[in-house]
Structure to design on (90 residues):
């Protein structure tokens, strides 16, 4: 629970500590969103970069069938979209 709260709040330092302690980078919430979905949607570039560096999957779909790339597009998060697309090798 604490790991999801910190990641959802986009506290980069907290996320870094949790990842170093073994938190699952692709943990899912009840709607199958990952921390990367949230960070992408809110334009948290630093958090997106940290999650990608730690192996977050850009292709995981939530219950709506949306990937973090889709979420970034829907929310006009252009800078984040560049990071995600680069990681997805598009």
């Amino acid at each position: 629970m604490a790991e999801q709260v910190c990641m959802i709040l986009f506290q980069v330092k907290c996320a870094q500590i949790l990842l170093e302690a073994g938190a699952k980078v692709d943990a899912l919430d009840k709607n199958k969103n990952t921390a990367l979905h949230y960070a992408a949607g809110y334009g948290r570039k630093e958090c997106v970069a940290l999650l990608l560096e730690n192996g977050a999957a850009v292709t995981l779909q939530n219950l709506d069938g949306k990937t973090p790339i889709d979420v970034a597009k829907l929310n006009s998060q252009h800078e984040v979209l560049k990071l995600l697309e680069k990681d997805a090798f598009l």
